[in-house]
Amino acid sequence: MDESALRRALGWPGQYWLLVMMWMRSGLAYPLSFALTVLTGVLITGTDFAAVFLMFSHLKSFGGFSLGEMAILYGTASMTLGLANLLTGSIDQVGQRIRTGELDVWLVRPVPAFLQAVAGDFVLRRVGRPLQAGLILAVALSRTELDWTVAKGLVLGLSLITGTIIFGAIFVLGAAFQFIAIDSAELSNSFTYGGQQLTQYPLVIFGQDVVRAVTFIVPLAFVNYYPVLYVLGKPAPLGLPSWIGLLAPLVAIAMIALASLAWRGGLRRYRSTGS
Amino acid sequence: MSVIELENVSRAFTVSSRTGFRRTRREVRAVDGLSFTVEPGEVMGYIGPNGAGKSTTIKMLTGILVPTSGSIRVAGVDPSRNRLKLAKRIGVVFGQRTTLWWDLPLKDSFAVLQKMYGVPRARHRENLATFVELLDLGDLLDVPVRQLSLGQRMRGDIAAALLHDPEIVYLDEPTIGLDIISKARLREFLAQVNKERQTTIILTTHDLDDIEALCSRVMVIDHGHQVFDGTLTGLRASQSAPRTLIVDLATSLPPIEIPGTTVTKTEGPRQHLTFPPTTSAAPLVAQIAASYPLVDLSISDPTIESIIARLYATPHRSSEVSDM
Fold this sequence. Notes:
The complex is a heterodimer.
Chain A lengths: L2 H8 L1 H16 L3 H25 L11 H22 L5 H7 L1 H6 L5 H7 L8 H16 L6 H28 L7 H15 L8 H10 L7 H8 L15 H26 L2
Helix pairs in contact in A: 2-7, 3-8, 4-8, 4-9, 4-10, 9-10, 9-12, 9-13
Chain B lengths: L3 E16 L2 E17 L4 E5 L6 H9 L6 E6 L8 H5 L2 E5 L11 H11 L4 H14 L15 H13 L5 E5 L7 H18 L2 E5 L3 H7 L2 E6 L2 E6 L1 H7 L4 E7 L12 E6 L2 E6 L5 H11 L2 E7 L3 H10 L11
Parallel strand pairs in B: 3-7, 3-8, 5-6, 6-7
Antiparallel strand pairs in B: 1-2, 1-4, 8-9, 10-12, 10-13, 11-12
């Protein structure tokens, strides 16, 4: 990366924030609608965990996890998906932008199309999920007996960042795929929202094949499951070493690289095929 | 030095269509071997029927689309390789869609563009004041864009495209859907911007009055080929569209018979005669007056529309049609 490219990259956070602020204010142009969607969002995600809670009125442990441990797993899954959705979720509208020609408008502006895509239509109501997840996580961590070490604290904290990146990268990969198949927004949803549904449970309950798939193919197990196993001092499945959770940052970096290649490829395809 | 240079530029698209179960792929050349240059400060009308390749050309000039072959230089750089850098030096108005923030007041969009393009504050204020006055935007600045009428929004969009002092402005059908007064006002504004700032303007349009009012140069494109490049007068002269003589006689008579003319229509005593553009009307009138009870007459020259329609209809030739 030459110097001017670096300087340009340093401007990205500012440009992202500028656009996010614009879209946030744009969303607040309808305050009642905003309040209602935040409220329904919180209610819907709230019922999410209620299901887990009810399950534990009949069970003592599930997949080797107690209720408190399940809450940690749920909280991290929901938090990472929520943050990724907040920060990058808008990118899944790229297919629609291609159809309406709005992508062309982005491409004639002096700001990378990627930033405009992730910031476009930034919806503040998406803070509902991370808020709810944060609450559950706080309660769960204070009520669960854990022999904390600095390493465990770091791993858990870092996993929230790397998990967000992994989910975010999946959003971007899905969006990149829309350059090939315009109507494929639902496909990436099955990996993101579907992935969150999966990763809120101890993955072993789904069987070895699923665990293999989410370890080696779509690395959702690195979002929270492996880091949480490490924090809780539980053995990893498939005979994997217990420190596998520590690889989450590497997986996140690989996902960034993959997503970036895919997005650039998609954009290049659009610009060279015009469709 | 030319501000825009195209050399043998082509752009092909693959179109796949399905007939029954068979899928066929076909290559369509939206732009085929286009070469031209535009000088700084020129206002060029770029016209052609739908699907002629106008938008494709504009998209290549802005760097959105990469040409399949040939070379393009805009403001000294290759647009597709320097898209982000070039973006600060060009302004684009897409007539059919807005680049403004729909739910926010017009002034908010202007404010964000100032930051996005890194326009110095003083310069921004100055430009904004000028455009507000010339485009009569004063009362609209606090109105959310979604509440603006089409004409008001277009004025907003044009101001937005010019705020960063672009050297080149591409306007894609800027007057589409506007009423006559809004159109006239917009044309006046664009002419003034071009004159005072030496901004190069490329205008695609279906409205030939836009061309008439603004463009010192017209380029006609059809099927991706250039079919004409020259002045509007040159365009009129280039096509041998027949002229029409409308004759009012004292009574209804059978069609007038004069060699070299044809009667295309009779409405009672009124008869429409067409004659070649190379023929002078005067001897013709004398001939008619001598043999028929002539009451009144008028001559109608072909409209630009009909000239262009003929241009599209003729099989495309590129260079030999050009008059310059």
